[in-house]
Amino acid sequence: MARWEGNARGRLERAALELFDEQGYDRTTVAQIAKRANLTERSFYRWFADKREVLFGGGEELEEHLVAAIDATPAGTGALPTLLAAFATAPEVFRPREFLQKRSAVIAANPPLRERELIKLASMSEALTAALLNRGYDQQTARLATDVGMAVLRLTTERCMADEQADFAQELSAGAADLLAVAADGVPD
Amino acid sequence: MARWEGNARGRLERAALELFDEQGYDRTTVAQIAKRANLTERSFYRWFADKREVLFGGGEELEEHLVAAIDATPAGTGALPTLLAAFATAPEVFRPREFLQKRSAVIAANPPLRERELIKLASMSEALTAALLNRGYDQQTARLATDVGMAVLRLTTERCMADEQADFAQELSAGAADLLAVAADGVPD
């Protein structure tokens, strides 16, 4: 069992996901989530600022982890390879696939959660771009590499969710190859 | 003077932008915006659902325009070239550069506007992906091409805002070449 599953935060996340799935996001209260997780409302707010946050726990840790991984990349590594190497070490992948699948479906079905997800992704992009700037890349390259790196990460996550046998690192490489094919198509020979 | 400048909507947009810039987004009311534009609050709500919407007017038209441009692309055009060709026809570029620069600064400085912008960009991405699906591309290619196409568009807009002499279509091509360089770097030879 993965590290995150046994703790209070993980229990709240799973309880929230179940309730959002069963009765919808709007009709679910923080009190219900806490009750389902056998915890108090007060413990809920120890972990999450509000109901919307409950599916985005761990985002800051992931961001910190990725920034540290970027900082640790050998000098001279290209901007996109730096990001891909960092993604390959992301602890997010240790979460059970079923959790990620259900989470993804619940977010897609609820506009307030989709908005929050967009904000979280934008925040992560900013952190990655800043980490690349710190490595000496110029602003435009850092931002462009981040945008395309995030596109590859999204594609990879999608493929890993769809295929139980998929290997995250291999899918990252495959995604980078697909990116190159799409990009090459955009420039006349 | 560009088409959009003379109308009520354009006046409301410019008034809002001035006020957000002068006194901040939070302290500006719809009544103040309407007054500055010499219009009533009622006319404001004829054009915009709320205060946040005022800087995103024209987004739906742009979306429709781009989808139509994608549909009109000759058969056999690649996914990314289809998007780039559509972007090259975007009427957005006819807005005065100073308006776009000020708008961009005001959005960057105000979290509620940044959130709304993320939602608008996500909505545009969905429309573009759907238009590419409609052209026969598979879901993953359509989405990947949209993600990278939007990254090139963002870079292009930024460069055009920074350089008065920049040509939008030329900068799109340059952005596509930069994208290819970043993408090629991500795949081992």
TrEMBL record, chains A, B:
Transcription keyword on record: yes
Annotated PROSITE patterns: HTH_TETR_2
UniProt-listed Pfam families: TetR_N
SUPFAM superfamilies assigned: Homeodomain-like (SSF46689)
Residues within the DNA-binding region(s): 29-48
Residue ranges occupied by any HTH tetR-type domain in the UniProt entry: 6-66
Keyword Ribonucleoprotein: no
InterPro entries named among the record's database cross-references: Homeodomain-like_sf (IPR009057), HTH-type_TetR-like_transc_reg (IPR050109), HTH_TetR (IPR001647)
Keywords: DNA-binding, Transcription, Transcription regulation
Protein name: TetR/AcrR family transcriptional regulator
